Structures are given as C-alpha cells and as structure tokens.
Amino acid sequence: MNLHEPTARAVSRLSGKTTLVALSGIPLIKAGDDLASVILDALRTSQESLCDGDVLVIAQKIVSKSEGRLISLGSIEPSANAMNLAKEVNKDPRLIELILRESTEVVRHTRDVLVVAHKLGFVMANAGIDQSNIEDGGDAALLLPENPDETCARLRSRLHALTGADVAIIINDSHGRAFRNGTVGVAIGASGLPALTDRRGEADLYGRTLRSTEVALADEIAAAASLLMGQAAESRPVVLAHGVPMQLRDGSAAELIRPKHMDLFRQPSGDAIIRGRRSVRRYKDDVIAQTLLERLLSAAVCAPSAHNRQPWRFAIVQDANSKAHLATAMGAQLRADRQRDGDATEAIEQDVARSIARITSAPTLVLTCLTMEEMDRYLDPRRTEAEWTMAVQGTAMATQNLLLAAHAAGLAASVMCAPLFCPDIVRAALDLSADWEPQALVTLGYPANGGKPLLRKPLTSVMRVVRAVP
Fold it and tell me: Which among 57, 346, 21 has a CA at the least distance from the CA of 218?
C-alpha cells in the first residue's frame, strides 16, 4: 500500500472540508518503541495514507511512554517542601516532589488542586504528571516528554524519510482552563505547521482591519483530535487530519505560551507574595505612577488597628530637593550621634554617605508615622504606654501591607528605621504636624536587582507550643 499520496487531497484545504480519522491498531507503547514504525503500521491497518499537508496528532501519553518517562514513585524521596505542600493539597508527597522537580513555580494551590508553571512554560495542573492509563498506576507516574517540540520535529523528519510525505506533527494533552469547567485538548508540541497564526492586518467581512486576532491553530486541531482519542479506555492515541486549512510554515508549540510579564491573570498567590518579598535598596530611575502609589496606600490602610482608630499617617516624598533636604538633615544627626560614640571619622562618613544615598536614590519615599490623636487616653502611665504601643502595632501592620502590596505590583522596597533616632529633625525637614510621630522611612522603586537572599531562623528556635498548664 502506498503511504504517500502527494496530490490526492490537495484541493480539500480550500474546500471548507477537514477530515479526522483515528488510526486503528496502535498497541500498548513501551519505552524505546519506534513511534514512526507504529504509526506506519496503523496507517496500513486503517487503510489510510499520508498526503503533503496532513497533520498527525499524537497523544502525549504514548510519546512519554516511548521516551521512558514513566517513574516509579517508590524511587522518589520527598523533600520537606514537598511534604508540607502535600498536606495542603491532600496528595502523595512523592507525587508532589515530582511535580516540584518538573516545575519552576507554584502558581496556585488549595486542597486537591495544584497548578504550577512547568519547565516547558505551560501553566497546568500537576505539571502534566499523570497516573491514568499506565501500568502499575498506583505506584508510578508519567511525566511529560522532555522536549515535545523537538520530538515532533524528529518524528516529522523520520516520517518524511520513510514515506516522502511532508506532514505536520502535533503532540496533544488535556488541560483544564482557569475560568471554565472541564478539560480540552491542547498542543504541547508541534512541527511543520504554524501553531499560532497571525490574522492581524487582514480585513473582516465588512472591510475592517483585524487588530488583535491571533488563532491558536495547533490547539484547535489538538482539541478536535481529542474528540476521537477520548479520555478513558478508547485506546485511539493517533489521529490523522486531512485538509486542515492553513498556510504551511514550520512552527512550534512554544509560540502558544504567553510570556509571564504579559499574563494579566497570573498574579502571585498570597503565600508567594509573602515568601517572595525581599528588601531591595537599589532602584531603577522609573517614576512610580501616582495611581499605583495610591493603590499601595489603599492596601496599607486595610491593616487592623486597636479600636479601629487607624493611627497611621503617611508622608510621600518624591521631589529631589525634598529628598536631599531630608537626607542631609538625618545624615547630620547620624554624624553627631556617632561622633559622641567615639567612632572613627572615616567609618562615620561612609555610614552617612550610605544613608544619604539610600534616601536620595529612591524614586519615592513613604514616611510612616503614627498619631495618638484618636487613641484612648488614660490617667495612669501603664495604660497610656500600652495604648501608644497599640498605635505602634497598627502602624507597623500598615507598613507591612504597604511592603507586600508593592511587591505584588512589581515594585521593590526597603525599610529604614532611622527616623526613630531623630523624629523632631524628620518632622521639621518635611514640615509635618507635631502629632505625627515618624516610625519608618520606606524607600520605593522598580528593582535594579533581586535583593539579598531571605535568611530566617528555624521555626523551632522562635516557636513554643504551650501545653496544658497543671
């Protein structure tokens, strides 16, 4: 039987007709099996042939099996991180360890759900690791192919060498969608066709120019093929598509991956924001928009406070002259304090220069203050001091909200506690009301570096579980 018919279906691409056929006779695939030979045998069994421009859609599972991506969970030693995450998502810690190894980021997680960014760029549940339709499914897991695009290119080249047909190859997998129920077939690998077709610049029915239309062609083909492949025991892992309307060019599934910085919906989780924040002292010169700054402060004032009195106040400094005036005044006090300590002049001047540079180089300064204006008043010093401490706590929590909101918005920040050493000087430099008590100076800007690593004491050294008191 001739497996290559160069012109037999050349017209169908223009006729509005596309035909999909699930190939019969695909055996259970094992590591090392030659998929090209398996597909040629299935074409004969199905009495089908390849035509230039046809598309073969191959289920990810048989590709992964042929590449030896089946892993015994018994060989996996879960890390402490995997153990902790497994408890939160109610999954096998060994499986979680595999997922983390195959991922670059945990995007979202809750009980029974773990969404990650795979090393290949896909945002997906469980890093695409599957335990269905595999031998020994209870103690084994199947990983995605190492490089699906490369696998497609190799298989396409091999089929061309064996048949002379110039066909396209897609590896498809089932993915969930963030805002819709159910899974749908998507392309995780492609070669020989444009995975993404750009229709921008073309005219619609009424002559209007398309400005943003890009079509995920490989995904559409993959989804159509999934209808025939099935999701359970159908055993139809290869689908041949005739007459797919497309302009031929080489491509890859990598075209379909939206860069992280362009993903408006992929915001970090609360846990990721808390753990990812770092103190950064070097910033780019970019100006922070007023609307963004107001959004950060709106987050800051969501903090809790004693009696809900909201004792925090914020002074915003962006003008270069004001920053320089504040930095110089605080630097003079730092110099005087350290001279009284008897420190070496050279060390003092270096310290003062660093302090001034931190203040003047930040695009925006936020001085957090507290006021006792609306706090309760007492006759005795014990409760008066406690009430002041409550105001300190509320202002500190507002400052933390500010830091986390800045990090979530892509900004960086660092906290200077120096205003506590010279509150009167800071008030005078910024012409603040006498009841505003400076607490911290937050420097804000777009980060010029990643900051220092987060080093924290182990929980066992800072935590005590109180047992029943006799």
Answer: 57
How far out from the chain centre does Cα 382 lie? Answer: 49
**Most distant pair of Cα atoms in the chain: their distance:** 102
> In angstroms, what CA-CA distances link 151 with 40, 106, 185?
17, 26, 18
Residue 199 φ then ψ, to 5°: -100, 5
Q: How far apart are alpha carbons 240 and 56 in whole angstroms? A: 5
* CB within 8 Å of 65: residues ≥ 6 apart: 29, 30, 31, 33, 134, 142
SS3 315: strand
User: Which of 3.30.559.70, 2.160.10.10, 3.30.1330.100, 3.40.640.10 would CATH assign to domain 1-68+145-265?
Assistant: 3.30.1330.100
How many angstroms separate the CA atoms of 258 and 195, rounded? 13
**What per-residue string of b and e applies to 348-360 under the rule 16 or more CB within 10 Å gives b?**
beeebeebbebbb
The CATH class of 70-144 is alpha beta
The angle subtended at Cα 416 by Cα 410 and Cα 417, nearest 5°, is 140
Residues 436-462: b if buried by 16+ CB within 10 A, e if exposed:
bbbbbbbbbbbbeeebeeeeeeeeeee
Give the residue carrying structure tokens 């398309």.
210
Per-residue pLDDT of the chain (470 residues; tens, 9 = 90+): 566 655 434 434 456 789 999 999 999 999 999 999 999 999 999 999 999 999 999 999 999 999 999 999 999 999 999 999 999 999 999 999 999 999 998 888 888 999 999 999 999 999 999 888 777 657 899 999 999 999 999 999 999 999 999 999 999 999 998 889 999 999 999 999 999 998 898 898 899 998 989 999 999 999 999 999 986 666 799 999 999 988 778 899 999 998 887 887 777 778 788 888 999 999 999 999 899 999 999 999 999 999 999 999 999 999 999 999 999 999 999 999 999 999 999 999 999 999 999 999 999 999 999 999 999 999 999 999 999 999 999 999 999 999 999 998 889 999 999 999 999 999 999 999 999 999 999 999 999 988 888 888 998 999 999 988 77
Calpha distance 131→61 (Å, rounded)? 10
Break the chain into its structural domains and give their ranges. 1-68+145-265, 70-144, 270-445
Place of tokens 């660092």: 414
CATH of 270-445, one of 1.10.10.410, 3.30.70.100, 3.40.109.10, 3.40.50.300: 3.40.109.10
Nearest to 314, CA basis, from 468, 446, 441:
441
Report how far residue 7's alpha carbon sits from residue 375's, in angstroms, rounded to the nearest whole number: 86
